[in-house]
Amino acid sequence: MFGVLKSLFRANPPSPPPPPPTPSWEPVDKMDAALDAAILLFSRALEQAGKSGGKLALPGAPPADVSSALADCVVYGAEGARKFVTLGLTHDFRAYRYSPQFQLFMILNAANLLESAEPRPATERVLGQIPRALLHAHMMKAWIRFIVCTGEALRAKEDRQDKLAEIMRGVKAALAAVQQAGPGWMSRQVDPSEAGLSWGQGYPAALSQNLGADTPRLSGLPMSRPAADMIVQSLSATQADTLKEPRRAVG
From residue 57, how far is each of 66, 156, 162 by CA, in Å? Predict the structure, then answer.
């Protein structure tokens, strides 16, 4: 969907990810909590289907209405002055690609499908989306920890480039740790290295805007107009490619 991707990761074992940046920031805290809820939901769905999520699974029951928590997790601020962030990647802090926002949308979409199927068991079509959503939920949890420290590095008067380089090393190490945590069957179904490229091809960015009646939303998730247009175009292209596939003969 994003073209031919080349892995960012090498054979050398990753160093331990750095501790979470401080101070906390409301959108990061909300995203982290919503992702935990989504991981619980996906873990339970896999368990009910007789599959193990390995180290990516979390035990316990998910809270109610995970989809709403995901749709709201990028919104922050006081009532009457609400803002939202659009997630992106950048090399120069002028141009952005929105693969992180796309993956958050897909995580939300998977949660929506699961919750709309309850209390019935999830269908095979729905379950087919869960491994990818679970993997990206963990990658997003790792990635959002670097949003605040990236902003702090940009504001630094000294050693800015060294600090940004250290952040990218931390991002890659954190993503590599997630890559290695999935069970073998999941890695055969979803390429972990390719999944990591949605989060590792640039510095983490969270672009803040005022939330209003004209804010674009997809499945309830607010986002900037460029991000919404990109997601709609990507989904349309995927649907068109699916329709072009030859139908299998029946019988």
Answer: 16, 38, 35
pLDDT score at 119: 67
What Cα–Cα distance (Å) separates residue 224 from each residue in 42, 97, 212? 27, 12, 11
| pLDDT for position 121 | 67
pTM for the full predicted model: 0.86
> Which two three-digit tokens encode residue 61?
């029951």
CA 104/CA 219 separation, integer angstroms: 11
Residue 161 CA to residue 163 CA, distance in Å, equals 5
The pair of structure tokens assigned to 73 is 């997790």
How many structural domains comprise the chain? 1
Collect the ranges in the chain with pLDDT lower than 70: 1-23, 119, 121, 240-251
Q: Which domain holds residue 175?
A: 26-236
Q: Is residue 54 a part of any domain in this protein? A: yes
Distances (CA, A) of 136 to 39, 153, 202, 231: 10, 26, 17, 16
As a whole number of angstroms, the distance between CA 112 and CA 135 comes to 17
User: Residue 246's pLDDT is what?
Assistant: 55
The answer to whether position 229 is within a domain reads yes
C-beta neighbour count of 183 within 10 angstroms: 17
* Euclidean distance between CA atoms 139 and 175, whole angstroms: 6
User: What's the pLDDT tens digit per position in 37-56?
Assistant: 999 999 999 999 999 999 99
